[in-house]
Specification:
This protein is mainly β and about 240 residues long. It is built from one helix and 15 strands; from the N terminus they run αβββββββββββββββ.
């Protein structure tokens, strides 16, 4: 009998301990909480305004004015110079993309100083960049040309209007005995429009064997054309802050 009681007491104690441990574990499990994961704030995506571009077609002639002196006596290959647009430049659908007062950057590609035997100086240039008043810069491919007659003629102190580029290669050339500069047709012979000097009849009459040729000197204010070899796309021009 005593053994049975002892066994019952032991079993009751074992059950009591088991329940206590279970309740303790359950309480501990209830106290322990899962960590709360914070969600990252959702960033609002603001759509950038779509910039619309307008095209100036190849073959357009820009009317520009020289900003500084360019001479075959001092110029070197790779030298750059600037010109200023006299008229605004419009896209094919009539939007102003290059305003009046923009800078068109030129680069000297070849230069020949005047030489004995009456050989005049020559400067071959290309135009490589447009710089707008609002800070916009655009790479261009432009060639020297006289002004298109459709764009208007200039007086005797400016550029004499002539043909379009066609197949001619236009360069700055020495003006002979009367000074100034000549836009010469290097390919196909002949001379193009005379700029920056007087178109005197005696200009080429000095005997070649008696004198050194005239160095070409393109002075500030000289007007001529920049022929676009490739089309150019730019946004509609807007002043800074507009």
């Amino acid at each position: 009998m005593n053994r049975i009681l002892k066994n019952k007491n032991f079993l009751a104690l074992l059950i009591a301990l088991t329940l206590a441990v279970g309740l303790s574990g359950s309480a501990g499990a209830q106290v322990k909480k899962k960590p709360v994961l914070k969600k990252a704030p959702v960033k609002k995506v603001v759509a950038k305004p779509v910039v619309k571009y307008y095209t100036i077609p190849a073959g357009e002639t820009l009317h520009v004015r020289m900003d500084q002196t360019l001479s075959s006596k001092t110029a070197k290959i790779g030298d750059t110079f600037t010109t200023t647009t006299i008229d605004p430049v419009y896209s094919s659908n009539g939007v102003v993309v290059i305003p009046q007062g923009s800078k068109i950057v030129g680069r000297v590609d070849q230069v020949k100083p005047a030489a004995k035997g009456g050989k005049p100086g020559e400067i071959d240039v290309t135009f490589v960049e447009a710089r707008l008043p609002n800070g916009t810069k655009k790479v261009i491919s432009g060639s020297l040309t006289d002004l298109d007659t459709k764009k208007g003629k200039s007086d005797s102190e400016g550029t004499v209007s002539g043909d379009k580029m066609g197949h001619r290669k236009i360069i700055f050339g020495g003006g002979g005995g009367v000074g100034g500069a000549v836009l010469g047709g290097a390919v196909g012979g002949g001379k193009g429009a005379i700029i920056g000097g007087i178109a005197g009849a005696v200009g080429g009459l000095i005997a070649e064997n008696q004198t050194k040729g005239e160095n070409v000197e393109v002075k500030p204010g000289t007007e001529f054309g920049v022929y676009l070899n490739k089309s150019v796309s730019l946004p509609k021009f807007a002043e800074v802050g507009n």
